[in-house]
Amino acid sequence: MAVSSSRSSSAKRNSVVWVVYILRCSDGTLYTGYTNDIEARLKKHNAGKGAKYTRSRLPTVVCYTSRWGSKSLAMRCEADIKKKTRAQKLALIEDRDEWGYGD
């Protein structure tokens, strides 16, 4: 029985969709993160319980998302976006196809 339980939990993990997101903060700055539950994460950010960066810049609004099949891919995408300049991030938000990301 433990084997079938392990298989079902493994299948469940594989069906999780990871989301990389960019928030626009109230002061106009951008914050990039990743999660497996974008709605819950946005609520945490806007309740002041998310990232330290966003706590003093409320409210936040999601302006970009991209979906990934694994946490490691989402983390790579997040790291790549964080290396971009503000202008490049704004271009990404406007034209997702330019970078090959997006829903």
Q: What can you tell me about this protein's structure?
A:
- With 103 residues, this protein is of the alpha+beta class.
- It has one domain: GIY-YIG endonuclease.
- Helix content is 47%, strand content 20%.
- The protein has a 3-stranded antiparallel β-sheet, sandwiched between helices.
- A hairpin with a 5-residue loop joins β1 and β2.
- The N terminus is likely disordered.
Order of helices and strands: HEEHHEHH
Q: Considering the protein shown, what is the CATH homologous superfamily?
A: GIY-YIG endonuclease
Unreliable segments of 5+ consecutive residues: 1-8
Number of domain modules? 1
Could you report the average pLDDT, rounded to the nearest whole number? 86
Strand content: 15-25%
The CATH topology annotation reads as GIY-YIG endonuclease
| The top level CATH class name | Alpha Beta
> How many beta-strand elements?
3
- CATH hierarchy: architecture: 3-Layer(aba) Sandwich
CA-based shape:
globular
Strand order of the largest sheet: 2-1-3
Q: Ends: how far apart? A: 38 Å
Number of helices, where a helix is a run of at least 4 consecutive DSSP H or I residues: 5
Could you give a short account of the major beta sheet? 3 strands, antiparallel
* Sheet/helix structural class: alpha+beta
Radius of gyration: 16 Å
Q: Work out the helicity level.
A: 40-55%
Domain GIY-YIG: 16-91
Protein name: GIY-YIG domain-containing protein
Pfam families: GIY-YIG
Organism: marine sediment metagenome
